[in-house]
Amino acid sequence: WHNGSVASIAFSPDGKRIATGGEDMFLKVFPRDDKAWVKYPMEKDLKDANGKPVPIPHHASAISILTFNENGSKIITGGEDNTLRVWDSKSSEPLTESMLHNASVGGLKILNHNGMEIALSMSTEGAMYLWNLESGQILAPLMFSPGYFINGFDFLPNAGSDPVIIYCGGLGNI
């Protein structure tokens, strides 16, 4: 199924699909009620209009984390290649340019805030990034947790006009 270890797994919001990512750099999605795998990008010979092979987009290193957005139309992946990527869950096409981090992506939360899909990602150097998932643009300056690794984070539900983020770290701080 994957060539190497599988590092992340997620159900689609409707529970009908399972997405996995791992050491082989590829995102794979399969229907829950079927044994047939569908690999995103598709595991077939992709060719352009002239019949020339088309490279299959993927991460440049292992996928460490992934999730579906709220309605299941997108799959968001983070990797050891220091990028966050957004994929159309039906066509397998990348929807934005790679969103660059300073280190491997180790955490990911998605929030639909006032009609805007926002990703909060964490990299292993202790920084958190706030992204617009439609444009792939960063929404705020980097948030650092100096001196320790961030172990967990989340959005406060129904926070009003501005998202509220809580995080905790290795020195016992919240």
Account of the 3D structure:
The chain has no helices and 14 strands. It is an all-beta fold and 174 residues long.
**Beta-strand percentage range:** 35-45%
Q: How many strands appear in the DSSP assignment?
A: 14
| Rg (C-alpha, Å) | 17 Å
Question: Helix share of residues?
Answer: under 10%
Sum up the overall morphology in one term.
globular
In which order are the strands of the major sheet placed? 1-2-3-4
The topology string of helices and strands comes to EEEEEEEEEEEEEE
In short:
This protein is mainly β and 174 residues long. The protein has no helices and 14 strands. It has a four-stranded antiparallel sheet, with no helix packed on it.
Keywords:
4-stranded antiparallel β-sheet, mainly beta, 14 strands, globular, 174 residues
Write the layout of secondary structure elements.
Blueprint: E1 6-11, E2 17-22, E3 27-31, E4 38-40, E5 63-68, E6 74-79, E7 83-88, E8 99-100, E9 105-113, E10 116-123, E11 127-132, E12 143-144, E13 150-155, E14 165-169
Antiparallel strand pairs: 1-2, 2-3, 3-4, 5-6, 6-7, 7-8, 9-10, 10-11, 11-12, 13-14
